[in-house]
Structures are given as structure tokens and as C-alpha cells.
């Protein structure tokens, strides 16, 4: 078909697409533009600038152990860019990649030729060698947190269960609190408290959910860190208060704070202390008492802090299949033969020498880490991106964690007053209609707001962009000057130390005063 005929057909199609539609407000004309370059994530250009100037994007590509022999294969930028855009969009399935294939703006900003298909992305992950791929992503997880570790910080550890609905490798029926009887994977996570940055994640079979399966990854992280970067404390729930974990930490002189299960021997210990004097304030309605305990199977006697608070009203006490109390262990104290005072108990084990008030608050602060695990599972890709083989699940979990860290730090640059979850930060700092036009060799992206805080987003993103470009100029002008990435991390440390999130979430001052 000749060029003139092709233009004639395109003109006719455009005229047909301008046909009017009848609406409640009257008849309107609708025009379909299939060739224009637009995106629903127009503000993402500022995040791409952050990745570019800090070198995070180029390093991620350069170290990727993906190689193709076919000249028709997609480039690394195409594969990793598609992966990045999909995760940032909040996708949970590879099939969701189809929704971003018409993005005509952001792929070009990342140096991509195109957004590849979901099948091409799956095949690309298969082509990445398992050991090399894990080392590559673990290295980026370490580097995304390393410049921030020279201040007092806490390492939270936890295990998250992900139910599965197909025939995946490692899908085993085991402990599953949300879907009993459903096969699952277990995600063992190591989190930097306060900033909520992921330091490591491992995907294991559903029956490998206990603390003993978390221990190897924990020791790897601790042993790799230099002395001045080690956490002031390792913190975990009752799944990690076992003798094996505590002995390994004690051998490394690593402080820890764990919660104990309310086993029969722990309950007997509570009964012995019930009427003992010396209970002191532990904050937020709790009172505590210091003691020592040597449970069966423990090689040493350890410091144990028993916390309790009176129950108000009625409290249902359920019991799990393993005999563990679900909502708490309650003691009853009869006063005057009529009144019954019930208590809710929590028992902490630690090798710290802090007073009870500080220990109680330090453990309650762990609730902030639970929010991060919930965000990663429900607002990012940990609840999906499942394949038949465990290898690609490992890579996807780590990739989600890396991109989550990058986005979290970028959002803190834009909003240093408090940390925002993806449910809030994505619409605010990412979503706007972006239209790309080119004229006289100049590319322009025109943004149109989609939310009420568009003007505030414009102000903070322009401020972040200006700061990044200033750091870039200073790094280029000075020899042996810190990189933009290091300047960015130093700025975050100073800013958060001066402003900080709400009191229970403080990383630098709040935790330093208690742990340092």
C-alpha cells in the first residue's frame, strides 16, 4: 500500500473515531488517539531522575547476570524496566504487565526500547542463573541500606506466610493462619526498623517457617556487617525466642529482645511472680518485674521480664490446636470474694541491661515492623508474582524488596516528616496524566493532575529534583567528592534526626536514647 493511501486510510479512521456519543450532559465528540505518547504515571519521571542521578538504575543493569545469545532478544533495560514499572504499578501477577504496554513515556525515560510481554519477562527470569541472581539482588539490598547503618538501628526479623493456589515448588501444607489447610510459601524477612527498609528476604517452603529456618539468613547478615554497622538490637516475636537462636547471638555478643511463648513452664513462672512485690511501671498501662528463668532445653539462665496489664471488660480467650493461647494467658485474683481482676501477660527474654520501662516500649515499637510486612504483602508484590519454580519466586521477592527500598527513600526525600505507605504515596507522587511532545529537538512531558494534592506534589517533586541536580553538580565539580547516592543518604540521616516520625517510630533519636 502506498504512503498516500495509508495516510488516507488513517484520516478516515480518525474521522470515524470522532463520532459523537450521547451523555446526560448532551452529545459530545470522542476522539481516539492511538499514536500519541502518554502515560497514567506521569510524575514517575522524577523517580526515574532519582534512580539515574544516584546511579541505582545503571548499577542494577550492569550487574544483572542476564545474557542472551539471540540478536532479537530484548535488552537488559527492557527486561528490568518492565519489571520495575510493573512492581511500581502495584502489580501482583505477571499477566498485569499487559496494562503498562501502552505507556509511551516512561519506558523511553528508562532507556528502554519497549515494554516486553509477560511471557518474555517470565522467560528472562528463567535465564538468570539462580545463585548469581540471588547474589546480584542481595547485593543491591545491602547497598540500599549500607550508608544508613552508621547510626543506632534495630533489626526486626519475622516470617510472613503467603497462601498458594496452584502447583508451585515448595507449596506445602503447614502453618497458615489466614487459610488453614492451604499450601503456602514462607517469607523470612530482615527489616531495618524505623525506616522500614528490607535488608534481606528468603522464600522457603511452607513447612520451613520456624525461627530455625530464619537463623542462617540472620547470621549471614550479621556476619557480613562491619562492627560499627551492626544493629544495636535484634528483635522478634515468640517464634524466635528459642535457645538455638539466642545462643548464636550471645556467641556474637549481639543484643536481642524476643517474646516467649506462654508454655506451661512460662505460665508456672508467671504464677510464682503473681503476688511478688516489686512490679513497676512498664508504660501504656503495663507493669513489669525482672526475673531469671532457665527453661527446659536452655543451656543457660537468662534475664526474663514479665509484663502484665489489667483487663477491662470481658475478653475471649481462644486456644490454638497446639495449645498456645491465642489472645493471652489470664490470671484471676479474687478480691473480697466477688471482684475478679484479670491480667493479660507478655514475657520478654533479653540480654540487654535496660530498665523495664524501656524494654516494654522497645518491644511495643515492633508493631511498626508489622506494618511494613503487611505493606509489602498487600500493597507490593509479595502477595503475588508466583511461578511453578521457587527460583523465580526468590528473584521476584528480592526485586520487590529492592524497588520498595528505592521508592521508600525517594518518598522520604519528598516527605521527610513521616513515612508514607504505597497506598498513599503512589497516587500522590506517581499518578498523573503525562503527555510527551517533541519540538526542535526538545522533549517535553506535560502533566495533568488526577488528585486534589497535585499542586503539593508539584512543589515537593520540584524541590527533590532541584536538590538532586545540585548534588550532581557538586559531585562533578569536586574531586573525590561523595556520590549523589551518599549525599542523599547523609541528607536523609540529618533530616530524620532533626524531624523524625512520630515518637514510637523514631529511628535515630528515639532508638538511640534507649539502645545506644
TrEMBL record:
The family database entries (InterPro entries) matched by this protein are listed as: Transposase_11
Q: Which Pfam families match?
A: DDE_Tnp_1
The Transposase IS4-like domain, residue ranges = 152-406
Q: What is this protein called?
A: Transposase
